[in-house]
Amino acid sequence: MRLALWVALLAGVAAGCGGEKPAASPSAPKPVASVSEAPDGGLRTKSGLYLSNDQARFSVNDSVEEALRLFERPTKAYDIRELPEPLVSEKGLRAAGWAKGGDGYGLIVSNDQVIAAVATRAGRNRTDVDAAVSVYKELFSSVEAAPLEGKTAKYWFFEDGSHRLMICGAKTRKGDWTFTLALGEQWVMDRLRMDKTSALEDLKEAERRMAEE
Questions:
Q1: Measured on CA atoms in the order 176, 181, 187, 192, is the torsion positive or negative?
Q2: How far apart are CA 37 and CA 7, in angstroms?
């Protein structure tokens, strides 16, 4: 389906600020750039991180079928078949998943293994965000980084081995919250700007735009 579906999926990660995201800071450490540069080819590594709910559990390098069990596909949802812009030139990758309205679940797949998953839920409230965060904080407290918080958004990061879990809650202009869960190989997460350096940049940009309104 259209690349716009990935734009909608990733919108909540930008802390509610629209338009183009800024480039990565030149002073930031150089991330792994592609599958070929990633340890083990970016595949078949394991960590203790996972996404879960009452229906299923997903870990990096699970099959597409296993990953899709995590979030039930709603009726009349669009298929996600095209890669997000930062990954379109990457050979050997494909996309899977679905999107409907502000909700979606996108997968990045290599050799039939899911190396990153991004789930976004729109129209939620802060209680929904806090409830989900508390689950993962309890599960992965030993690998949790200090959260990053601005006036309109908050990010939580957990890293284990070559994998990263990011949670982002962003308050919209309507007053509700967009909630994003993402888990994947760190080099993929870096390319999707799901890292601490990019989060800080997006928080600063959101506050700058708020000050101009």
A1: negative
A2: 26
